[in-house]
Amino acid sequence: MIRTILIVYVLIIIATVSILGFRGDKTRKEPLYLFPDMDRQSKFHPQGENPFYDNKMDDRLPVINTIPRGNELELAVVFSEDYSAEDLLNVELQTGRDAAGEWATDFPIDVTRDVIEMGKVKYDIFCAVCHGLAGNGQSVVTSKGLPAANLLLQNFIDQPHGEIYNTIAYGKNLMGAYGDKLSPEERWAVVLYVRALQRANQGTMEDVPDGMKRELGI
Amino acid sequence: MSNIFPKVANKVPGWIMLGISLKVLAIVAAIYYYMTPSYTRAGYQPVQPVPFDHSLHVGQVGLDCRYCHSFVDRSEHSNVPSTNTCMNCHEVIQKDSPKLAPVWESHRSGEPIEWVKIHKTPDYVYFNHSVHVNRGISCVHCHGNVDEMEVVWHDKSLSMAFCLECHRNPEQFIRPVEDVYDLKWEPTQEWLETGAAEFVHNYKVLPPESCSGCHR
């Protein structure tokens, strides 16, 4: 009697484990919460769903015809007490055009080594997949049929800084906009780094400082 | 009058006791085994509306995590990318692929793609991505090798014990900030011996261990 009970007992355990699987196994099913505690509270989460709106998106776009105070990449600035609209009113910084409406030919940010380095980090994340690490338009993406431009060509060297800024912020033809991923300062830093890549590509032996020649083995 | 119950009846209470305790034992064991926070979500691998493949986009195309999860180093929330982000490439690449139909649908209608959320901490836990990734904690510790996953699953438990294990000894997990997004990074001997401890010391890396750090 006892033996039968024990055998049945073990069989039930084996059956449960084989139906539910070992813990941590991959499963397609939404995890079950027997004791929900306060795990899921009735509040809205970033990128969450909100049935109030038509497209159910809780995150809203700015209202048309309003001027944003800063942008979403700089929330700390938006909510700061001593907020100043200086950057926002700097037309060249925001749009890449100078007061006369022409493409800017100078940089509205300080040009320092740190800024170039920041530009490199951002370029490697957001541009290199298509334009290549060296800017020459060689990448997996171009080999799959998206014709990303070779940024080292003369016509891009001749473009004013502001026009390149504009391409980054709003996109151009087949290239999408990167204004939602890069703040105005970061976009200018990328322009600066593109300039550095173009300059490096034009380099000759005379540009290499004497001390460095041996290090490079030339 | 003395024989209403047969002799075996003496054993019945024992059996009942045994049965009940075996049942209770099994239920407790099952709850412990399946339902403690270390395992409630681990292994969860839902079917996504688009069969998006991290191993292809990160491993072969060479995208950086921040190209898509572009707020991970700027805010507490690591965003899932908008349809625009996919369209930067898929406007042209494989544009007729049936796998991408929901992306085009969303692009035309303006309605977002409804990705299924995999990692979810309870709402009473405060978590912040940017403080971690900007201080040399890589995605791989909390999400596993996403760069090799064809379909993302919940790899680590993300339970309180898991968080604390690292908060108590950050120098065992920390890496140079520029290597955070390289999930294949392996520490050098030198980094293990001195580099990590120096980093923790010099940058005053101080993960909270008190309750109010995470339950605020």
What does it look like?
The complex is a heterodimer of chains A (218) and B (216). Chain A contains eleven helices and no strands. Chain A is mainly α and 218 residues long. The model of chain B has no long low-confidence stretch (mean pLDDT 89). The longest helix of chain B has 24 residues, at 12-35. Chain B has three domains: 7-35; 39-80 and 117-214, no CATH class; 81-114, no CATH class. Chain B starts with 11 loop residues before the first helix and ends with a helix. The radius of gyration of chain B is 25 Å and the shape is extended. Chains A and B meet through helix 1, helix 5 and helix 6 of A and helix 1 and helix 5 of B.
CATH homologous superfamily title of the domain at 90-204 in chain A: Cytochrome c-like domain
Q: What's the CATH topology name of the domain at 90-204 in chain A?
A: Cytochrome Bc1 Complex, Chain D, domain 2
Please give the alpha-carbon distance between the first and last residues of chain A. 90 Å
Structural class, from secondary structure content of chain A?
A: mainly alpha
Uncertain regions spanning at least 5 consecutive residues of chain B: none
Number of helices of chain A: 11
Q: Mean pLDDT score of chain A, rounded? A: 86
Ordered list of secondary-structure elements with their pairings:
The complex is a heterodimer of chains A (218) and B (216).
Chain A: H1 2-20, H2 75-78, H3 86-89, H4 91-95, H5 113-126, H6 128-131, H7 140-143, H8 154-158, H9 161-170, H10 184-201, H11 210-216
Chain B: H1 12-35, H2 37-40, H3 54-60, H4 65-68, H5 83-90, H6 101-109, H7 129-133, H8 139-143, H9 160-168, H10 189-202, H11 211-214
Helix pairs in contact in B: 5-6
